[in-house]
Specification:
heterodimer; A: alpha+beta; Thiol Ester Dehydrase, Chain A; five-stranded antiparallel β-sheet; 35% strand; B: alpha+beta; 3 helices; 5 strands
């Protein structure tokens, strides 16, 4: 069982640079062809500060920074048993190439179902940018299956 | 149907997005693009040790596809909130289909909005992701 003492676990905030090459790569892999993801002029013509990150792009930050793996190790979870249960993004301002985002996350809950066969870890992350804007909130639930 | 913020009604559907069968190549590329390097999606040896028959797709890949279906219908800046529940694993070879429809018109934080129900499903009809988005209409 995951120790409930980890509720409230809040690692130091991490910074993440939003790179235009990475945005273009991400857009290509998922088949997004809108030029606002690849062409600065098109993005500006559409009213953005710069090349726009696709809606779920910022989920890459905790993977890149190692925070996801650090969380799994800190909570002593077996990576092979992890599934993604839920994910939500609340958007407050656009994320553009060249931005430096700050991710501040916290484990807000840990609970289990089916007599402990399934455990759930809820993580909430506030994302701000270099302009001081609150750009997004991420709400994640990971599932650890013991069955 | 074409998105028109002024004319949108409950029941309106966004164009269905049919994806190609999930391949190992796509999973490898998505691992790199998304920053999710969990070997269960790219390394069959690791997946087998974890008790799976093979690697399987990242839930976030289908979430990105579903966001694509939505963003090809409404301008991305109108998307205020987007969330999903991952209901089933997407396997290699599965043909993911993304669909959605307006289920409610409401005022959210003083703004007129539409709630769009979003679904990713396999060719068998089994739902893999069930979610929703809040889209600004002002």
């Amino acid at each position: 069982m995951i120790d409930k003492k980890h509720i409230g676990y809040a690692p130091s905030p991490t910074l993440w640079n939003v790179e235009k090459g990475r945005i273009a790569f991400f857009a290509k892999v998922i088949g997004l062809t809108d030029p606002v993801h690849t062409d600065e002029a098109a993005a500006k013509a559409a009213g953005y500060r710069g090349i726009v990150a696709p809606p779920t792009f910022i989920f890459g930050a905790p993977g890149d920074s190692g925070e996801t793996m650090k969380l799994i190790e800190t909570l002593e979870i077996d990576l092979g048993k992890v599934l993604h249960g839920e994910q939500r993004f609340d958007y407050h301002a656009p994320v553009c190439a060249g931005d430096t985002l700050r991710f501040e996350s916290r484990v807000s809950d840990i609970y289990d179902k089916k007599g402990g066969a399934l455990e759930f870890v809820v993580n909430d992350t506030k994302v701000t940018n270099q302009l001081g804007e609150h750009v997004a909130d991420l709400h994640s639930v990971i599932v650890v299956r013991h069955a | 149907m074409t998105f028109d913020a002024q004319k949108i009604q409950v029941g309106d559907a966004l164009p269905v997005l049919q994806l190609a069968p999930i391949s190992r190549t796509t999973l490898a590329l998505f691992a790199g693009a998304s920053g999710d390097h969990n070997p269960i999606h790219i390394d069959i040896d690791f997946a087998k040790k974890a008790g799976m028959k093979d690697v399987f797709a990242h839930g976030m890949l289908s979430m990105a596809y579903l966001a694509r279906a939505l963003a090809q219908w409404v301008p991305q800046r109108r998307i205020l909130s987007y969330g999903v529940r991952f209901a089933a694993i997407t396997q290699l070879g599965d043909r993911v289909q993304c669909s959605g429809r307006v289920v409610e018109k409401l005022i959210h934080k003083g703004r007129p909005c539409a709630r769009v129900e979003l679904t990713a499903a396999k060719a068998s009809g089994d739902v893999t992701l069930a979610g929703d988005a809040l889209v600004a209409l002002d």
